[in-house]
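In the design runs reported in the main text, the only information available to the sequence generator was the tokenized backbone. The following block is the verbatim input for one such run; it is reproduced so that readers can re-run the procedure and compare outputs position by position.
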């Protein structure tokens, strides 16, 4: 195995190119190892996330999480996901909050693909922990743990909404990363964030709310629905609901006619 070159610490990554359209160009002096030399942490739509350890010459540097386009995507898909990754890098590099995963670099890997290097927010997502708890039949998370997650997520969302005028746009348990025994709680994946106006409304006609259906508010499911910061708050509430029920929101709900007498169309009494 080849020895990886030395890496600079995040606060020394200062040379970045910026294109005329405001996109986030590649960072200088950063080398991302090939995917097989990194531990795979997870995946999303069209992307994989890897753990990049950085300890050159016996020094201990904090690891990074590196998001790369899935090489199995066809050329058209790669172009789409690359643009999304570029947008995420552009948004993330302007954010700085203890409850938002931090930006580290946007650079080219040795295989030619562009990569977004981020703060390593934790070993697992909140969704991973929910699934583990469900599998082990451990029941809901303790109230103190739910409260801790709620407070940390709320602080991150307050920063996005009030200070940065951004709607996250895809709040859910898989977009919350946890370190250790809930030592830190950070919101990640800002790639589909949307700008908010002074009324906390997504008013740009070109802005498309993506979200994930089980966490979408009613206005996002209706044609012409007005999207505001409340869309994130609705999904935030459902994320806490996941911790209480260990279930995906709005799945396995009873049909409307489950309580209806099939013979005469009357509801059962008692």
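Verbatim output:
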């Amino acid at each position: 195995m080849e020895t990886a070159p030395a890496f600079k610490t995040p606060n020394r990554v200062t040379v970045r190119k910026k294109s005329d359209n405001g996109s986030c160009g590649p960072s200088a002096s950063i080398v991302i190892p090939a995917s097989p030399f990194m531990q795979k942490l997870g995946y999303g739509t069209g992307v994989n996330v890897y753990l990049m350890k950085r300890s050159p010459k016996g020094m201990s540097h904090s690891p990074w999480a590196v998001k790369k386009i899935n090489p199995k995507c066809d050329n058209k898909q790669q172009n789409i996901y690359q643009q999304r990754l570029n947008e995420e890098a552009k948004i993330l590099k302007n954010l700085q909050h203890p409850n938002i995963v931090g930006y580290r670099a946007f650079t080219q890997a040795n295989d030619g693909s562009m990569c977004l290097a981020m703060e390593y927010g934790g070993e697992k997502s909140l969704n991973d922990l929910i699934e583990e708890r469900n599998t082990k039949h451990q029941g809901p998370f303790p109230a103190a743990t739910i409260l801790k997650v709620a407070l940390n997520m709320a602080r991150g969302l307050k920063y996005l909404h009030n200070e940065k005028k951004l709607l996250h746009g895809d709040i859910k348990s898989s977009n919350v990363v946890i370190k250790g025994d809930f030592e830190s709680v950070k919101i990640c994946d800002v790639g589909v964030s949307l700008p908010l106006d002074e009324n906390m409304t997504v008013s740009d006609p070109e802005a498309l709310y993506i979200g994930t259906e089980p966490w979408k508010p009613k206005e996002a499911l209706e044609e012409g629905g007005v999207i505001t910061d409340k869309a994130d708050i609705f999904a935030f509430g459902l994320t806490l609901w996941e911790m209480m029920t260990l279930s995906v929101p709005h799945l396995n709900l009873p049909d409307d006619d489950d309580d209806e007498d099939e013979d005469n169309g009357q509801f059962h009494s008692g």
